[in-house]
Amino acid sequence: MLRASKRDAPEEVSIGLVGIIESALAPALDRTRKAFPGLYFKSHPRGREGGIRSLIQLHVYSVDPDSQAKLDNAIVYLLRQLSKPAHSRPKGQEKARQDNA
């Protein structure tokens, strides 16, 4: 996606996520990718999983012109997804999980 662009450089937003491991980030990142098609997400784990201070450096790119607002909205969406309690599930999933137990 990034190489196919005719622009010189993609728009980029980078944030550091402290205290989260990649396995916890993955579901929220998947939902964000679906909500914001056309953006490219790349995570770079730093530090140690399960250590005192895990860190993920997350980069989000877009090749669309004037995409800064979309990038900002995607970051806000992702942070809201990460702030939801782990036991919070969309309606219907809780019943399905109980039925399979």
What key attributes describe this structure?
101 residues, Alpha-Beta Plaits, three-stranded antiparallel sheet, 23% strand, disordered C terminus
Structural account:
The protein is of the alpha+beta class and 101 residues long. It has a single domain (11-84), classed as Alpha-Beta Plaits (2-Layer Sandwich), CATH 3.30.70. It contains three helices and three strands; from the N terminus they run βαββαα. The chain has helices at residues 22-35, 68-83, 93-100; strands spanning 11-18, 40-46, 55-62. Strands 1-3-2 form a three-stranded antiparallel sheet, covered by helices on one side. The radius of gyration is 16 Å and the shape is globular. Residues 91-101 have low confidence and may be disordered.
